[in-house]
Design goal:
By secondary structure, the protein is an all-beta fold. The chain is built from no helices and three strands.
Length: 66
């Protein structure tokens, strides 16, 4: 999905909430909905954390069933 808003989140801790139910995926960054889309090709499967470039750290990762 195309980003709904652009948020400057570099260089600080951020809070992501990612909701995935069937083909629908909603991403919220620091309380602002940034993406909402559907992709039937990926309605189920494994979960992974990845990053592009630079230093990325994860903490307090929680995965819950909806």
């Amino acid at each position: 999905a195309e980003p709904k808003v652009k948020i400057d989140a570099a260089g600080k801790w951020n809070t992501y909430e990612i909701s995935a139910k069937g083909p629908r995926l909603i991403v919220t960054l620091n309380g602002t909905k940034t993406a909402d889309g559907e992709d039937k090709k990926h309605a189920g499967g494994p979960i992974a954390l990845q990053y592009g470039a630079g230093t990325v750290k994860f903490r307090n990762v929680q995965i819950r069933r909806l």
